[in-house]
Queue: 2 jobs
Job 1
Amino acid sequence: MKNSFFNPICLRMALIMIKEIEIDEELYEYNNKIAAVNREKFKAKGVYALNVMGSPGSGKTTLLENILPKLQKQLRIAVIEGDIATQNDALRIQKTGVAAVQINTDGGCHLDAKMIENQLEKLDLDSLDLLIIENVGNLVCPAEFDLGEDLLMVVLSVAEGEDKPLKYPLAFLNAGAAVLTKTDLLPYVDANIDTMKQYITGIHPQIEIFETGKKDGVYHADELIRFIIAQADLKKIR
Amino acid sequence: MHETALMQNLMDAAARALEGRSVTRVNRVTVSIGRFANVLPDAFLFAFEAMTRDGVFKGAKLETEQLPAKIHCPDCGHEYEADGFPIVCPNCKSRNFTIISGEEVYLKCLECEEEG
């Protein structure tokens, strides 16, 4: 056959067309949908969920170790610990007498809603007032992944540098509360706590800011403890 | 490095869109990234290149466009675009705000070579 139109190779080439396939799909949508399911579960059971994020070494676990004994007197609590590896943090929390489970992300830089959904199957939400989720140490990624929490709380130590809020604004934009830890180090580090607060409110004027630190060997976080108890009580009423 | 997780979501969404079609090659992937989405373009591109080494995506180009952050002022009702911090209403100078959009990342479209 001379006519190239009937040549199968030419026919095949002639039929390949350039097409534009419209998709318009939001890439956080999958996570957000599961987060909404988690949020509904917390609401139905009156559990206040707190998502704690901050850099590695900012003092997230130390903060929890110190506030849990006081919170525990008023609230029934469980903790979900997120880390790339090890059970260390869950073990530290369990020593306070609070139930803790550990998620290992095996390299993942943040927790996502699906990981929390999986853990919720193991927890009895009926017997809880407060669920604290300590995210993977990271000042960037956890802010982007809604877990279904009531409050995203960012933890920043004064030793990390006073301009950290300016460098990592989105964590402070998305958080409802910020905790400035290790205030006992202020005399030794090049950071002014008022400047840090100004930077934070410059990004998010409505954010609640708390200070924690040791004084005479005692860890001070009373204002934060009162705030969490009040929020958890409000959630029960609602 | 949540860019890798996002890129995996993108590849999954793209694979779903291509299901049942006879696409032989994807030439271009277009993505819209919100101003406040916290996505590093370089890290996003790195993940894209790592995940498009073979199959129909081999050699595909990633095209990104930025979506502005749209803000609503609860005090005067004005809507405006913000390009960083502090966020201040240009109409009434209020520092109160709600973010309408700008934290999203969209897979917009694929330019493909398709049979038939």
Job 2
Amino acid sequence: MSGVRVLVGTRKGAFILTSDAKRERWDISGPHFAGWEMYHLKGSPAEPNRLYASQSSGWFGQIIQRSDDGGKTWHQPGTPPGEPTTAPDGSPKGESNKFAYDTSPETGKPLTTHQWYDGTPHPWEFKRVWHLEPSLTDPDIVYAGVEDAALFRSTDGGQNWQELSGLRGHGSGPAWAPGAGGMCLHTILFDPSNPNRIFIAISSAGAFRTDDAGKTWRPINHGLHSLYIPNPTAEVGHCVHRIAMHRSRPEVLYMQKHWDVMRSDDAGDSWHEISGNLPTDFGFVIDVHAHEPDTIYVVPIKSDSEHFPPDGKLRVYRSRTGGNEWEALTKGLPQSDCYVNVLRDAMAVDTLDKCGVYFGTTGGQVYVSANGGDRWAPIVRDLPAVVSVEVQTLP
Amino acid sequence: MIRVTLPPHLRKLAQVDGEVTLDVEGQVTQRTVLDAIEARYPMLRGTIRDHVTQRRRALVRFFACEQDLSHEPPDAPLPDAIATGAEPFMIVGAMAGG
């Protein structure tokens, strides 16, 4: 019987929630990596028992963890304890938590500064991995979006990481600036129909696309309008919070921006607003129904300074028309005195016949709807603040 | 034999309980002790000092013999009591809440 495995990253550890296809009774495993910030966990589409996790700490930095058995056991995919740290030829073995920016003149061009909050140049400094995106076809290939914004790739199961430096080096890097959460690369989307095309998004630089497998990149922000930057229609500088696509229609992208919900029908070449009748168009998450490419979900948040739902009512909004016309989904969600946030990586959908929708809150709740959003129920209520939610649909 | 104490998070990563004991060749300094730790426990590389710059991470402190050695040069000899194993070299997470 099929089922689902929900991977939850929180401020103080990771949790794995499993259920059969009914999604009514849940087994809770965790906390894994207790006490660490778990920004993101994600399974390989090619090998579901291969999981990657980003474990980090302000004290001890970045760790990458890997599981090859669906989260029962974990290890750091670098050099195992007791083994020499260098290969017989003297070269260092894998250091799975080493994210070194490419500074070589040939490929790194060497980029040394981006913009700080006050507009002054600031050195590029690695802080943490925000998002891990395993390849659609090879479980040993995985991409990492990091703060300060850059894209890294491992082709050996997370042992070694190399920067795809064409992104930072494409020209606008020195003008990128951090958002309130840091200058993070938080969205990585592969085009299932074109292995050379990848979309990424950075707060606060905007969205970018490569059509040559990561060698070169270009900003895809035409149509975005951001009043909080000097030139509201600038090529870069937009605070994109999240982008989503349906795998059957990869040229259509949906975006939750700092303010505004946006849509592109041409792979990001141009965007138009689809906020429509939303009570507020500020928010972080956006996702697409697994079987209905025009059905999308957002969680409106009051404003950029008041990170909680309007009127203390936690409402998911669904559009069945690809935007503009939205309905509030409230059954099973708290409709008074609710002041949690839903962070950008904290919504996911499964691919069961009746599409399941999941999201986590900064109050530690993880909610599921097993019927596309019509009715919601908490899987857990009292976790640490939830940073990320991913779901795997298991055979 | 050098004795080293690690903070709980790093003990868990290294899969060790209690103190770690290490052989350090040559002069006993912060750098040679950390080199020995990272050689024995490669999963700790990057957690105590930065991979690239080799500088101590900002919220990690080094104490020994009731002294704060965090700001000593990495190649300065550590006290004899550390070198002889009479006292442990303590790697501590800074008290910063959380």
